[in-house]
Write a structure and sequence with these properties.
This protein has 136 residues and is an all-alpha fold. The chain has one domain. The radius of gyration is 21 Å and the shape is elongated.
């Protein structure tokens, strides 16, 4: 019974990703698949949290303006990232970006826990900077 189920999954995997030749290749594939799964999980979690925090701090009425600012803000970042990857090695840029995101996450955590600036303050206002920064 177990062998037939195993063979079934092996056939599906081979039809999707090709034949995996060695255990090292399988280990590499599984680790990259796990990293991809983790990235997608965090992305979708933060995507829904982004709207919730923005609505709680800035308000629903400002979402169209936030989307416009977000699109305008992303273009220079993409150009900057492209220039940086031309200058430095890709691995170093990846680690630097990971460190920046980690520091940003810690900073947002600290600000969100603050009683006046954070989520404990239930005042909805378009002047609450933390909501605008979180959206971008």
């Amino acid at each position: 019974m177990f062998d037939s189920v195993k063979q079934f999954f092996i056939k599906i995997a081979q039809s999707l990703w090709g034949k995996i030749e060695s255990k090292q290749e399988l280990r590499k594939f599984l680790s990259l698949a796990f990293i991809f799964f983790a990235i997608i999980l965090v992305y979708w979690t933060l995507r829904s949290a982004k709207d919730s925090v923005f609505n709680a701090t800035v308000g629903v009425d400002n979402i169209p303006m936030a989307k416009i600012f977000s699109a305008v803000f992303v273009l220079p970042l993409v150009i900057f990232y492209t220039k940086i990857t031309e200058i430095f090695q890709r691995e170093k840029v990846f680690y630097a970006m990971m460190a920046i995101y980690a520091l940003g996450a810690v900073a947002f955590m600290i600000f969100f826990m603050h009683p006046e600036y954070g989520l404990a303050n239930k005042t909805v206002s378009s002047t609450r900077v933390i909501g605008w920064l979180w959206y971008w």
